[in-house]
Amino acid sequence: MPDGPVSGTLEEPQVQAMFDRIAGVYDRMNSVMTAGLHHHWRRRAVDLAQVGAGADVLDVATGTGDLAIELANRVGAGGRVIGSDFSHGMLDLARDKDSRISWEWANALDLPYADGCFDAVTVGFGARNFSELDAGLREMTRVTRPGGHVVVLEITTPTRPPLSTFFRAWFDRVVPLIGRLAGDSDAYTYLPSSVKRFPGPHELAQRLAEAGLDEVHYLLTAGGIIAIHAGRKPLEG
Prior knowledge:
This protein is of the alpha/beta class.
């Protein structure tokens, strides 16, 4: 597989084509790889978004929409949730899951939304696929209203054994094998590569601050395999 940008191992058109290709197995693979815990992690991310009834929220790189659905449950009938992605295959599956959400095609590096129009902007397991991470974080910040929150939920690499040893064995050997059995070993070889290249929690917090956020903080869960970052867009004036 060719080398790509720092935050991943493929160029943007290749990543887009890959997610179109694996859309049909994506949810099942997530459940297998995380023992179903990914739904719990998404609920934790929604907690950090600090949205309530009636809020307007954007979920970037929404995939098949699970994080957007958690957000819709939180904002209720008076709120609005948009789930955006650049994979038509993923969006087609998301549309079948939940009709409360506006599912829209969009590139995370050039979001087609006005400045400051969302109470919160989230991304779950998608930031490492941004071909230019800093550009994607700046765009998420741009479309967040002053006082609103940006949340990034991602896999991170644990540094202490025995979990670090298990993590390497799981992602370097088992995940590509599962992907091969699912019919797409290239896609699930890309996954561990993208995780390894993605910034660690401290560096990602710094880059969120550089994107224009303050009060940036993060929590580690699942023994340090999952990092959830949140930052607040400063109030104007």
